[in-house]
Amino acid sequence: MPESLDTQPVSAEPLWRLGTAYFSRKVTLTAAELGVFTVLADGPLTAEQLRIRLELHPRGVPDFLDALVALDMLERDGDQYRNTPLSDHFLNEKRPSYVGAFLSAADARWDRLADALRTGEPQNRWGAGPQMFTEQYRTTAAWRNFTAGMDYLNGMIGPPVAEAFDWTSVDSVVDVGGARGNLVAALLRRHPHLKAGVFDLPGVEPVFIEHMTQLGIADRVTFHAGDFFTVPMPAADVLILSHVLHDWALQERQALVSRAFDALAPGGRLMVIDPMIDDDRRGTAGALLTSLNMLMVTPHGAEYTAAEARDWLTEAGFTGITAVPIGVHNTLLSGVRPA
Ligand SMILES: C[S@@+](CC[C@H](N)C(=O)[O-])C[C@H]1O[C@@H](n2cnc3c(N)ncnc32)[C@H](O)[C@@H]1O
User: Cα(5) to centroid of ligand 1, in Å?
Assistant: First the structure.
């Protein structure tokens, strides 16, 4: 159709913002891959010193480093570049909280979104069912990398979960599928009276001990090793399923909720946390995008609405179910096993 001069063409700006969001991610992850933040962790450097250390061509370096300043990943004082607290914590390879490899793996996977949409298959080669995790993370190093990524995600929800509920009446909490204990560490930081535990696969235990030791709370948190589909969940006043249900198919989610019900004493509470999709499926893009990420990494996982989760808890026997937003795009849904 011929375009008319009278018609206002649609603005390209929303698309431009999406395009440059992609550029921003690539600049940041490439800086992590090249070791910019790891080198600068030893102290500030000029652009030329950094260029020589990283063996880069002179042409792109000034724009690259100043783009990182504009993205708040570096600070510049005079001609000296240094890490920001954010990049130093998460993108400096010398720190246990490093997530550069975790984010780069996701970045590479998302290049295959079209394949995932055509086939419905995750873009990794691990099978369905409980072995999905054990196949993938055969070594302590692989668990370390994965659980650092989990810390980066659950680190954003720990403080709000510690405030979202009156923990003073709770004695014990177990985070089921709690990885290396980062979420219960946030709860303990705010509520030191709690007895806390993590229930996860045996392969996680070494990185759990390592992380709890680094945080100075190894003697205050218990690790329960087992497969949550076959081993009964530990008894506690509160059980948490954070970023767990979205990994699994509907039947497996229902089984986990029901197994949590069985483990809780009357009056005990289950907390389910995931980036839940709004009922109308058009609110914020966050949970819809993480749901597509579940398509990329799991055979049957997906995000879900709070209404769906409420049904699973009701079917299992929970009452008093409430849902509150947690952080930017997570929801905490909780229910009580009746007395
Ligand atoms: C997506 S991670 C979530 C970690 C953490 N809860 C969080 O919010 O960051 C899922 C966790 O479930 C654990 N998991 C997976 N399958 C399991 C099984 N069959 N039994 C026990 N834990 C399992 C994984 O090891 C991992 O720590």
Answer: 57
